[in-house]
Amino acid sequence: MGTKRRTDTDVHGFQASAELSKNLQRVLVDLIELHLQGKQAHWNVVGTNFRDLHLQLDEVVDFAREASDTVAERMRALWAVPDGRSDTVTAGTTLPQFPPYEHSTDEVVDLITDRIYAAVDTLRDVHDAVDAEDPSTADILHQLIDGLEKLAWLIKSENRKV
């Protein structure tokens, strides 16, 4: 009458290819770096609208930290091995280095939005290859792109003049 019942040896979970693993690793290191740079900015921002920007930076940090955990756990669900060690993040991130010392709120707005957009560029760069292999994981990338672009817009608006 219909399909034959599977045996235990017939059941296998989806496993990420080397390419999918590599693409998700690229996203992971950028999100970890964004989390760290967001904290650096948070600690060293000074000037007009300090408190508002200080709190917005916490939102970026929280988003990036949660997103990196989501990506790493998705990798594990697909039998890939995430690598979030500091030397791996430093060697693999596409985000520009964050300058040391204090920075004005105007400077930090530009610095952090540039880094958010760098992370989004990585997400967009890997998206089509990820989608071709695993549309479910591509859905996660969509959510991350949407969230990061919204955060960038909210922060970038601090410096916008009309």
TrEMBL record:
Pfam families: Ferritin. GO terms for molecular function: ferric iron binding; oxidoreductase activity, acting on metal ions. It comes from the Bacteria. InterPro entries: DPS_DNA-bd, DPS_DNA-bd_CS, Ferritin-like, Ferritin-like_SF, Ferritin_DPS_dom. Residues 22-157 form the Ferritin/DPS domain. Transmembrane segments: none annotated. Belongs to the Dps family. This is DNA starvation/stationary phase protection protein.
